[in-house]
Amino acid sequence: MKTTVSGLIVAALFVAAGCGSDPNELVAPRSQPLLEALETTIIGQPIVYPEGQAQVTSAVLTFQPGEQTGWHHHDAPLYAYILSGAVTVDYGPDGTRTYIEGEAFVEALGTSHNGMTAGDEPVEILAVFVGAEGVANTVLDE
């Protein structure tokens, strides 16, 4: 049985924080609103958690002007937050989207896409994979 990522995260934070029923209290003090509460990927797919032992992986990715990721897909949910710069992602038949500093999204699952810097400055992305042991976070397409 697959479980939605957002449901697991909210439930875990609710229990850990010992907070009331207001979801904004689960992550930050009352003066700071909840950053995101997403249930679908950027192309509208439901976010599902892979089977197996949970494994959360994070990294800050930096791409120089003109650099591309190459066509790839993700087998584990990826939450991405643009720290600086801008990136354009081509989802093939699902269109192209550009993300700028301060934007966050859950990347497409199992759908090939190619990211490239947008503009003439580097882009930095905080990438948090909510996966499982033995499940590839990123798979390069051939």
Would you mind describing this structure in some detail?
Helices cover about 10% and strands about 35% of the residues. Strand 4 (about 85-90) and strand 5 (about 95-100) form a beta hairpin. The chain is globular and about 40 Å long. The chain contains 1 helix and 9 strands. The longest helix has 13 residues, at about 5-15. The chain has a single domain (about 40-140), classed as Sandwich (Jelly Rolls), CATH 2.60.120.10. It is mainly β and about 140 residues long. The strands form 3 sheets. A 4-stranded antiparallel beta sheet has the order 1-8-3-6, with no helix packed on it. It has a 3-stranded antiparallel beta sheet with strand order 5-4-7, with no helix packed on it.
The ordered string of helix (H) and strand (E) elements is HEEEEEEEEE
Shape: globular
Mean pLDDT, to the nearest integer, reads 83
In which order are the strands of the major sheet placed? 1-8-3-6
Strands, total number: 9
CATH fold descriptor:
Jelly Rolls
Q: Largest beta sheet, briefly?
A: 4 strands, antiparallel
* Backbone CA Rg: 16 Å
> What share of residues is helical?
under 10%
